[in-house]
Amino acid sequence: MAKPRVYITRPLPQPAMRILEGAVEYRLWDREDEPVPRENLLREVVDVDGVICLITEKMDAEVVDRMRRSAVIAQVAVGYDNIDVAAATRRGIFVTNTPGVLTETTADMGWAILMATARRVVEGDKFTRSGRWKTWELMGFTGQDVHGATLGIIGLGRIGAAIARRARGFAMTILYHNRRRADALEAEVGARYVSLDDLLRQSDFVMVSCALTADTRHLIGERELGLMKPTAVLVNIARGPIVDQRALYRALVDRKIWAAGLDVFEVEPVPMDEALLKLDNAVIPPHLGSASTATRIKMATMAAENCLAGVSGRVPPNVVNPEAAERR
Ligand code: DGY
Q: Global pTM?
């Protein structure tokens, strides 16, 4: 019997490839540092039974409608806003993601960015290397205290909850805003539910960790930034378009807020003429939230398992649109 055919949009680590080898025939875009060009993607998906992709691939209706044979799109990430799930469901294609395995790693990174931004670690590092360090200055590079401060978390899903648990170690007051109340977590970490506006007004640190949806696009814009304290720090580890980047730039320049730590951007990679790049009060790693070696291997492995299940006629374990089964 012919093996199922799979297209993989980027090289995966060996443990993930071992799951696929022997079980499927695969083709691969084999460059690590460059996403598959759109025209290749459109061509490659036509005759395969499944696709394994990254957040860099725009799996919109045009791509999905070409996937005439496919049973599954297996994303190597927990977020899947790059995939037109409705289009996939219409075609009976399962969409899968990688929840759980990256929660703690991403929460660690949220904290790394928060601390680096609050205590000006990147700015200080650049200064040391520049040769401009002449003396220990009493008020040089002073930042914001994290311990005992108020942390406002927007989106208390798995990652938001893991961030809240870490905040207890810093004796922080924890506020959150979420679609639903999280009663268990309120009891566990003493988090308090507030409206978005109250969260923005009261927090010293605002952590964005909600999913990008039609409702959360530009959730944080000029008005919302205007509610924040002038000493506040905004951290976004979710998706860039949740924050209006133009408005954020203005708020940082005008010192409406004190600083921002962003792991995600409206356009990725960030174009070199992006105004934010010029600001010292912005810390801007290149979307590294889940980037520990162990976690990235787990994510790839999970995606390979999801894909194998889908192309073998099973409902994949991490399916986000189980209703696709009814269209098959
Ligand atoms: C995700 O999983 O959604 C991240 O943004 C990539 O690690």
A: 0.96
